[in-house]
Amino acid sequence: MPNSDFDFLNAGDRDFYSLEEVTEHIKETATLSEIDGDLSVIGSICDFDSSEELVESTQSHFHIEERHGNLLLLNAKALDVPYYVFLSDEFPIWFTTGRKTEDMPESIDAYLKSERKIGRMWISKTQMENLRQRIVNRYSDVLMPYFTASRSQHSEISAKRRPRFERTFQYYGKDGLETFNEIKYEYGVLPTNLKFQKSNEFKFRVTTRGVFTIKNGGLPEVLSVIQDSIERLKEVKDAIDTSGFKRTKNKFASGQTIPESHPWAVQLESAVTQADIERLEEEIQEWEFNIGELDISFSEEPEPPDVNFDGESLQQQQLVERSSPHLKAELIDERSYGKTVLRTHEDAIRIYPREDTGIDQSIRLFEFISDQIDANARPTRVS
């Protein structure tokens, strides 16, 4: 059994088989204020065939210290830093007292980058704003004493002042809620890092990277937010799971194979525009992708009759047709160098995996589309 400082959740000899059991145990027995360091809760999403495959994958960066049912106690190999992970076939949840800037890059960050079948529970800026609104509506006297917020050059969020400028804000102050509302109204920003505080109840922070840092209390609120993210990303993962990549034998060339990729898709409210493509070119690197190839074309305009059934001019319809480009883009993940191909198809973007496409890059692509192209984008399967 590890020493009490290492077993920061005081799991002892108990086994846990649901996240609810872990949550209740922490609330009843773990004194967060006495933990050496802040407690960080990290959401992840995985594509392993079983939880045992997940356990095996951790051994590249962690020593397995103990197992308590579905709760695994780990020690980072690069540093003497404890981690707990609640095992799940799709959404493992990690707990650690490691420092975000000193300890996590060499442990959990390195692990998530190296494993193709697991990635972060990314939270888009739009979802961060939805989260902020839910917390504020739920707790009338909550404070937001710290936040960062940003705006991209081509954002569709309304802004009163110079809407085509990129901008980033960082703010400390007890009037953070009021200040954020003012900045959002004037400059059209969305949050990327939020800190919430309610006197004598909780204090926690959340980032778009799916890292929740608990200073004192707030675990139920954090896990509630994580559960909301799981419900949203479950629909995304279900769509991703309908896609696939394989190689088949080439009947006409001995020893050669033919790659076959079946896509999943992101349904949009309207067809991709030239402005959307400009956002892709300018903003995709912020999501840790490079563009390998980019092909933009416009289909020839059909020969319509002079008037429609209502006797109205078709000039506007023709202009719309000319403004809907066809896009094919090959994206390369800066971390793993895995490739993914995007193609527009009517009012959707189809996403074609390659043999080295990982779950993390697929989730990041969906979050990019939600953030930069269509906040109401929906994941869907392709028949």
What would you say this structure looks like, in words?
This protein is of the alpha+beta class and 383 residues long. The protein has nine helices and 19 strands. The strands form three sheets. Strands 1, 2, 3, 4, 5, 6, 7, 8, 9, 10 and 11 form an eleven-stranded antiparallel β-sheet that branches. It has a six-stranded antiparallel β-sheet with strand order 15-16-17-18-14-19. β10 (202-207) and β11 (211-216) form a beta hairpin. The radius of gyration is 23 Å and the shape is globular.
The count of strands amounts to 19
N-to-C order of helices and strands: HEHEEEEHEHEEHEEEHEEEHEHEEEHE
The span between the termini is: 52 Å
Tally of helical segments: 9
CATH topology of one domain: S-adenosylmethionine decarboxylase
Please compute the radius of gyration using only Cα atoms. Answer: 23 Å
Mean pLDDT: 86
Q: From the helix content, strand content and strand pairing, which structural class follows?
A: alpha+beta
- What share of the residues does DSSP label as strand, in percent? 25-35%
Largest sheet, if any?
A: 11 strands, antiparallel
Could you name the ranges where pLDDT drops below 50 across 5 or more consecutive residues?
301-322
Approximate helicity band: 25-40%
At the first level of CATH, the class of one domain is: Alpha Beta
* Molecular shape: globular
Under the CATH scheme, which architecture of one domain would be assigned? 4-Layer Sandwich
Keywords: Coiled coil
